[in-house]
Amino acid sequence: RCMRIPEAIEIIEEMAERRGVEPPALYVGIARAGSEHPVVAAGSGSKLKETDFGPPLHVLAVPADLHPVEREYLETFAGL
Q: In CATH, what is the architecture of 5-77?
């Protein structure tokens, strides 16, 4: 079975809570990359947990500090 983006975010947030650290502020979720109908979304964990990514395959990225061009791309194409 493939893990979906909301499941991965839940695991990351649970681990952060157990360790007493803040969970990531930004996630990037991608579903069916390279297909005719990919889904790309960026934002908080709560936003991405509510996003309908549809069927797998899913990819979750947790970026560090973004370059301005990366932020612009995510704002344009991923709803950041």
A: 2-Layer Sandwich (3.30)
